Amino acid sequence: MDMEKSRQQLIGRLTENYADYRAELLLKDRQELIDGADRIAKTAEVFQYFTQHQPTEQEVSYFLKFQNPLEVAADHWESCEFELDALGAVMADTVDQAKDLTLYPLAVDAPERKPDGLQKFVNVDLEAILPQIMAQKTAFHQKDLSYALDEMREGFAREDPAKRNFVVIFRQSGVDCLNERDMLIAGTRSYNICQYYHRHTREPVLAYSVELTGDGPNGLRGNLYQQDQHQIAVFAERAASPYTDVTVAFYSGKTVRVPGKEYNYETIPNLKYHYGDILDARNEADDESVVQGALHREHERRERMPKGHIAVHVQELEEARIQTEADRLAAALQSLTEPNTPDKTHFMAEVSPYFLPLASHDDMHRLFEKVRDQVKQPIYIAPVEGANGQYIFMRREERAQEQPSKPSIKEQLAAKPAPGDQPAAKSKNREVR
Q1: Could you tell me which of 165, 199, 201 has the C-alpha nearest to residue 183?
Q2: Which of 107, 272, 280, 432 has the fewest Cβ atoms within 10 Å of its own Cβ atom?
């Protein structure tokens, strides 16, 4: 590798290290930031040194050996006792001594990082695309998406940026629309729903962050970011600030702040009686700076996601939906040891009731072909008398033909020995009784 490429590789790794470092800072409270101010300043100076001054060939070669060269350099700069600006000299001395190779994780030992496959989709027609995504997951309660779009329209009409960022979760029975800021305030509805999909259900869902960018005559537009339901919940749990109060704004112009536990369906009528209809309600965190720091970190992370094509993404979701159901049905048929139809003549497996409402005629044909190719036997799809739904059937005789019959003992004894087989040697040392 030539030196210029090596320098760019080092700068890239340092930039990644610095982004991770800043992200960690955004999760710290104010006292921790005050106590660590000197380290923060030293780290920034080291990053500035490498990115704004051309590092020497020796520095490039040495610091590329480490997974986190920023940490190595910052440790040396922080421990420097000189008062003058000697950062360059400290880096040169660090390279000359080369004492860090056994103290810090080396780049050659770093596990291979696999991409998570998540993408971002920019400037999307949300009112056209979100229903297409829903059609690949949500079989029941599809009306929920209308409520979610209404909430987005209301949010875009407000000047508050916190009202323009959402997380939409598509599940088999319904759609949840979470306010992104509230998801980082522990104890709010959005936070609790996010944690539910991580801790209390195994159902795989489709989750997307939605960033509204426009609401014109053609409808809502915005950016979509794929999310992993578990990763985002772990991040929210770690980064969230506790829920304290609710600031309630009324059409009368009055604003009231009430404890969060006292704002519910039982107390809202009393508030309306005193102040009139409610214009807006904003959940408040114990430390808003923690919430804003977490939001900033999340937005920086998702901006680095690779761009995708939304039409291709929807096609991939459709293919995955059919393939997943085909795999499940094939596994169910192959796991049966005895026919399970009422007359005991066929093996059968029910097509998922969550798959059928979303399936077109073409989807059912593709499903049939995928299952047939896996079980490698003739099958057919039909309903069962007295039951709802559709089932895939395979005849008992066809399953029996699949398994070769075991030869009888007589046939095994009459069989000629294979070439090269030697009869067992007779023992000469027999015990006389």
Answers
A1: 165
A2: 432
Distance between CA 168 and CA 175 in Å, rounded?
7
Find the farthest-apart pair of alpha carbons in the chain and give their distance in angstroms, rounded: 113
The tens digit of pLDDT for each residue in 13-22 reads 888 888 788 8
H-helix or E-strand containing 121?
A: strand 120-125
Q: 224-258, pLDDT tens digit by residue?
A: 999 999 999 999 998 899 999 999 999 999 999 99
List 175's β-bridge partners, or say none. Answer: 170
Burial of 420 (0-12, 13-18, 19+ CB in 10 A): exposed
DSSP string, 164-229: GEEEEEEETBEEEEEETTGGGEETSHHHHHHHHHHHS-----EEEEEEEEEEETTEEEEEEEEE-H
| Burial readout 354-368 (b: 16 or more C-beta within 10 A, e: otherwise) | bbbebbeeebbebbb
β-pair partners for 258:
246
Most confident of 131-140, 287-296, 384-393: 131-140
Q: Given CA atoms 86, 98, 46, 42 in this order, what sign does their dihedral have?
A: negative
What does each C-alpha distance from 245 to 18, 174, 250, 262, 352 come to in angstroms? 35, 29, 16, 9, 44
What's the confidence (pLDDT) of residue 431? 45
Q: 426 Cβ partners below 8 Å, 6+ apart?
A: none
* CA gap 256, 47 in Å, rounded: 46
Any idea where the domains of the chain sit in the sequence? 3-109, 120-247+281-308, 311-402
Residue 77 has pLDDT above 50, yes or no: yes
